[in-house]
Write a structure and sequence with these properties.
The protein is of the alpha/beta class and about 425 residues long. The protein has two domains: about 5-20 and about 240-425, Enolpyruvate transferase domain (UDP-n-acetylglucosamine1-carboxyvinyl-transferase, Chain, Alpha-beta prism), CATH 3.65.10.10; about 20-235, Alpha-beta prism (UDP-n-acetylglucosamine1-carboxyvinyl-transferase, Chain). The protein has twelve helices and 24 strands. It has helices at about 20-30, 45-60, 95-110, 125-135, 165-175, 195-205, 240-250, 275-280, 315-320, 340-350, 385-395, 415-420, and strands at about 5, 10-15, 40, 60-65, 70-75, 90-95, 115, 140-145, 145-150, 155-160, 185, 210-215, 215-220, 235, 260, 285-290, 290-295, 305, 325-330, 355-360, 365-370, 375-380, 400-405, 425. A hairpin with a 2-residue loop joins β16 (about 285-290) and β17. α1 (about 20-30) packs parallel to α2 (about 45-60), α7 runs parallel beside α9 and α9 (about 315-320) packs parallel to α11. The protein is globular and about 60 Å long. The two termini are about 25 Å apart. The relative contact order is 0.15.
């Protein structure tokens, strides 16, 4: 697949959504470190989840997939287990979550490993994180797209900023319980994307890991063991609010609306905030059990704080272009360090569709007039969320939208084009 052409017009219908990528990463890691075999049930396997699965296999876990069920035999991390003398090959692809979660885990296991990076992953910020791990016993060096690590992570005090990546904190929370002594995490700035760390806390709690929350971080006892209870030995991963956001935003332009099912009403997922953001835009949001329906209401301009919802900004920017008025997005500077520079790529995607947009250092100003033109080729910069947002933009275009490198959606949502194409035209 190279170029996907999306016809203009508002959509309506019902969609079943794939399993949460964020929850699947965390469940896989906890179960691969546990004291017994277990499994998870997934609806859909994205490239990022396959990256975490392949890296865990490289660290010694055995993972098999059959008809949506992933069966996991844990890594042999116990001290008496024999470790391979050969460096583990860990193909983390373009997945920042995989790299940042598993780098300290490799150190906790004392494994020599090579993380193989693709795309922009080698350009994304890691210097401060790597230095903290080096200061606590690991050896880390880079050679192009390869990141080499060895050495044993040591307990102690870990100081990290909270405004670069919440994944630093999550990675340490996975690794530090395995160490020989207690450790402390001190977060030196306000923690952005804190909801993602809450997801990690939830996964750790479910795996029997304990910690103490402090005023500026965490106190984590060492010598802990991950344990999966009999009641959760086979767990189903709930639907993904991040993936659902594209359909829910498309529903905001439709009188008949779009319904997405398999969304937990009490989900821990931070991107559940999409419902609040759409209501602030004036869309009609209805939650019935595990179904969410969004319809067009009296749409209006708003302001959006991007600090807690970075993955939602591209598609919310499309909604902003579809209302009459000026919407400002701020506190989103971290978007420049994603699969693309998402402030730049979102701006150019909208401009390609005919929107009036101004790029700021930490966000965007979108001068919406209620419609877009389309008729142009959109370059998503091989960023899955930009490509899917451009498809949502077609809902308010007068001409077709052509999207380059459309297969990039496979990073998080391989079946997106099929699912989007299944919607009816209003």
């Amino acid at each position: 697949m190279d170029i996907m052409t999306v016809n203009p017009g508002k959509r309506t219908g019902r969609i079943g959504i794939p399993s949460s990528k964020s929850l699947a990463h965390r469940a896989l890691i906890c179960r691969a470190l546990a004291d017994q075999c277990s499994g998870i049930v997934l609806d859909g396997f994205s490239a990022d989840i396959k990256a975490t699965m392949n890296c865990l296999k490289g660290l010694g876990a055995e993972i098999s997939i059959h008809e949506g069920v992933m069966e996991i035999t844990p890594v042999k991390w116990f001290p008496e287990a024999k470790q391979s003398l050969q460096a583990a090959q860990l193909p983390c692809s373009e997945s920042g979550s995989t790299l940042r979660f598993l780098l300290p885990v490799a150190g906790a296991l004392g494994r020599e490993a090579v993380f193989v990076m693709e795309g922009r992953l080698s350009e994304r910020p890691m210097e401060r994180f790597e230095q903290v791990l080096i200061d606590h016993g690991m050896k880390i060096r880079r050679d192009g797209r390869n990141l080499y690590c060895s050495g044993k992570l040591e307990p102690g005090e870990y100081k990290l900023p909270g405004n670069i990546s919440s994944q630093y904190i999550s990675g340490l929370l996975f690794a530090l319980p395995l160490l020989d002594g207690s450790s402390r995490i001190r977060i030196e700035t306000d923690l952005e994307s804190a909801d993602y760390v809450k997801l990690t806390e939830g996964a750790l709690h479910d795996a029997g890991i304990i910690w103490e929350t402090t005023q500026d971080g965490y106190l984590i006892p060492g010598r802990q063991c991950y344990h999966i209870s009999a009641a959760t030995k086979m767990a189903r991963i709930e639907g993904d609010y991040s993936a659902a956001a594209f359909f829910l935003c498309a529903g905001a332009f439709s009188q008949q609306g779009i319904t997405v099912h398999d969304l937990s009403p009490d989900s821990r997922q931070g991107d559940r905030r999409i419902l609040e953001e759409l209501e602030r835009f004036g869309a009609l949001v209805e939650v019935q059990g595990r179904e969410v329906t969004v319809r067009k209401g009296q749409l209006k301009e708003t302001t959006i704080d991007g600090s807690m919802i970075p993955d939602l900004i591209p598609v919310l920017s499309v909604v902003a272009a579809g209302v009459r008025g000026t919407t400002r997005i701020y506190n989103a500077a971290r978007l420049r360090m994603k699969e693309s520079d998402r402030i730049m790529s979102t701006c150019r995607m909208l401009q390609s569709l005919g929107a009036d947009v101004r790029e700021l250092q930490d966000g965007l100003i979108i001068y919406g007039n209620g419609e877009l033109k389309g008729g142009a080729l959109v370059d998503p910069y091989r960023d899955h969320r930009i490509a899917m947002s451009a498809a949502v933009g077609a809902c308010i275009c007068s001409e077709p939208v052509m999207i380059k490198d459309a297969e990039c959606v496979g990073k998080s949502y391989p079946d997106f084009w099929e699912d989007f194409g299944s919607l009816g035209m209003e």
